[in-house]
């Protein structure tokens, strides 16, 4: 009996991990976005954020929205992490989830933070959520198809181990690059002021529609059951790095618009 139980434990852990990993960048990805954002904040914005977060960095709080998933009282916020869209649709055309979505979550966070009457604890909560959600927006599989849960049901292998398309883009490629979030942030592309301003242009909905174009390419990049290895990372890790950097720049833009 003990032997059967021991054999069952790895399977249960795998199932739990698969469920917990639905709809989020891995921890390092979010921290990279938070760290990059800090480089683009104005002095006034930094001061306001430091006051709200009591000295905690954007990188540190960037994973908060995933950490609270283990608490049932925050379950209603799970829908804020993604948008389901058919590949031939824009956000404006897609059927909206009545319970909320990534765009609505970001808009709610911004509204709370702009409201001078918001309670301090609400500002802390929604600032932490905002940092995370803008990161999620730039992970292409957060704007994926409903029928496969943003690639979570697209089963593939990563170097011979079971994975899925969502996890490959969330975690596998970043983890296998074997750099800390600080190293990844410090090695982001050197962009001109004009390039940064171009990335900052547009609304949250515009950014969703832009990332959705990347989503289409990600779906085309694999076959179900395919064993993804070095070539896949070589071909696509540059896109991961670009999305992390855009997420950081745009997070700073949103925060500067709120506080500056």
UniProtKB/TrEMBL annotation:
This is S1/P1 Nuclease. GO terms for biological process: DNA catabolic process. Keywords: Disulfide bond, Endonuclease, Glycoprotein, Hydrolase, Metal-binding, Nuclease, Signal. Residues 1-20 form the signal peptide. Pfam families: S1-P1_nuclease. GO terms for molecular function: endonuclease activity; hydrolase activity, acting on ester bonds; metal ion binding; nucleic acid binding. InterPro entries: PLipase_C/P1_nuclease_dom_sf, S1/P1nuclease. It comes from Polaribacter vadi.
